[in-house]
């Protein structure tokens, strides 16, 4: 029910954004996250953007996992 | 057969499970309170990777499962009205009420449509001005603002034939009620990531302050979940209790204020009945007086017979993590996904459905 | 049958479809050829070993990226025959058409049926058309039946599945269902995502000529790969263990699944097959598959095990093993 996916904002007209995930596009509403610009990544839940994805934090998570993978040997 | 990324994932998973095993020396029960976590845990086979002293239990985290019979009976009664179209997320369709389900009503001729977004209801409302469109507004803090925004959008578009039937629920009051129950034994919480994207970190502070229980706001990738369990393990090992945030790429300390503003514009906090948990004070959302004309219950009053619950069904105890699905006499016998007795068996996010479908370690070489 | 009325889920290919077949159809029609519950029946007529099958097509929308209901109706039936180890020869086509249906659309549909038939090397030799009142069907429904000759020396049957055999998948899964479902939920797909709808009989013939003792061929249509693997595990009373990492899913299809909450392993395919065979033959089978336009991304996805009988396990990307169960009902009505 709380399923949500990160998507890239590629166009904005008023409170309607076009977002892209893996080449797939869909229109979503920005009513709950009005402060978004083209190029941002947002979390999409049932047709609405609900939060911005912090790219710096996402990168940090990926780095951490790589580092930890090194310890597992 | 594995590429680099997959190799990294397995190694990181091995690191976390190794550390969890080292840090946790006596049996602990960790509860996830998000149906999406429940499914992700099963889909990734996480239970099978964790050491035996770490038990993951599912709490009341599936919004469909905690919706009581009288709500479904009301939805069924509305669906039988000739001028009503029901719009709903797919999960609700097969949930049994006292005597029927929306799926059965649909087969018998009711107009019930599955939507991906509540906004789709408005297009249906615009295309059918002669009908009344009722959206079944079910969900936690993640989803409730979407229904509120849809009401505002209906107002903006001047649609007079759109209504919501609200059964929205709030997570922190449910956690509070759960912890007040002496039957419930939990050593830490995996907190719902997408609910937290809306409400932020602060509403969970009482877990640490009042109950000295650790909590970690968790993402949904398999490694997010393993890392969150590891973070809980570290806290348990050190006997600390704070709210940590593993899902920092999404969850801000303050949540999403714009979404909360939309929510409070349309909804007000109400006491709400939870299946198997009874009425919990201030744990639900109802449409406020200002938006009364969008509230199905107020604008389209109808008589519904008093609901009856299945006596033998133990969903209530499953939802509180007191028993495992297999401890219910109906599980896998009278109650199976194709003919569910309780709601926990019907929603794809339901604890019983997930146990039945994924078999909790049943597959062994 | 526990239900008093037919529900949509009875047509989804999952457990309720199975209930319908075993609870209503088999008690009425039971016979040796039908009881095998394969994609088609192998029947003996004096002098010839025939395979015979039928299927009805009710997909909505009628036209989709990569095909339409007509192409699907030919490929589906051709593939059902091919999966029995047969060389398809003749098809019938029955049309139930709604009053008011555009003739131009009907012409597009029959032209693509002929194009698919030509590619498959089959002839549509008999047919029927009925027109019903507006509202009695949704546009057009098509039934095709087909017959073919069982290829000499083959004996495809779940009873020949043995522990230790390899399981080969001919390519990425989920494309057909996603191509159809995405538009219904407002997703705009890139041109790279199309239905995989294709006739597989040419490829099957090459595979069986090289390795006649293939144990089982099956096309994972309704219910997807997970359902097909479960059917074989149950019919053969073996266990199956597959590797999530080895099952290809096109990234765009995976993204659509993430958005809509679908599991690609349960989504329908219309141009893929799985092959159960002795491991010694795998290299030859893979070489043939990879050299063919419908098998370029083929690979070994798992193995048959001796236990637990009737169950399918999936080793996940992070290394856990979980049950890969049969679906009860999918949320994807009328995808074929």
Q: Largest beta sheet of chain A, briefly?
A: 5 strands, antiparallel
Q: Give the SSE string of chain A.
A: EEEEEH
Instruction: Report the principal-axis shape of chain A.
Output: elongated
- Portion of residues within helices of chain A: 10-25%
Biggest pleated-sheet summary of chain C: 7 strands, mixed
Helical proportion of chain C?
25-40%
User: What are the segments of chain A in which pLDDT stays under 50 over at least 5 consecutive residues?
Assistant: none
Strand content of chain A: 35-45%
Radius of gyration of chain A, whole Å = 15 Å
Most extensive interface: pair and counts? A-B, 33 and 51 residues
Q: Kindly state the mean pLDDT of chain A as a whole number?
A: 92
The order of strands across the largest sheet of chain A is 3-2-1-4-5
Mean pLDDT of chain C: 92
Distance between the termini of chain A: 37 Å
Task: Tell me the series of helices and strands of chain C, N- to C-terminal.
Answer: HHEEEEHEHEEEHEHEHEHEHEEE
Relevant terms:
B: 365 residues; alpha/beta; Rossmann fold; 15 helices; 16% strand; globular; C: 336 residues; alpha+beta; seven-stranded mixed beta sheet; 31% helix
Can you walk through the features of this model?
The complex is a heterotrimer of chains A (73), B (365) and C (336). Chain A has 73 residues and is α+β, with helices and mostly antiparallel strands. Chain A is 23% helix and 42% strand. Chain B has two domains: 1-62 and 172-245, Rossmann fold (3-Layer(aba) Sandwich); 69-170 and 255-299, Rossmann fold (3-Layer(aba) Sandwich), CATH 3.40.50.11740. Chain B has 15 helices and eleven strands. In chain B, the strands form three sheets. Chain B has a five-stranded parallel beta sheet with strand order 2-1-7-8-9. In chain C, helix 3 (69-83) packs parallel to helix 4 (103-120) and helix 6 packs antiparallel against helix 9. Chain C has a seven-stranded mixed beta sheet with strand order 10-12-8-13-11-14-15. Chain C has a five-stranded mixed beta sheet with strand order 1-2-7-5-6, covered by helices on one side. In chain C, strands 3-4 form a two-stranded antiparallel ribbon. Helix content of chain C is 31%, strand content 25%. With 336 residues, chain C is α+β, with helices and mostly antiparallel strands. Chain C is built from nine helices and 15 strands. The interface between A and C is medium-sized, with 12 and 16 residues. Strand 3 (24-29) of chain A pairs antiparallel with strand 9 (187-188) of chain C.
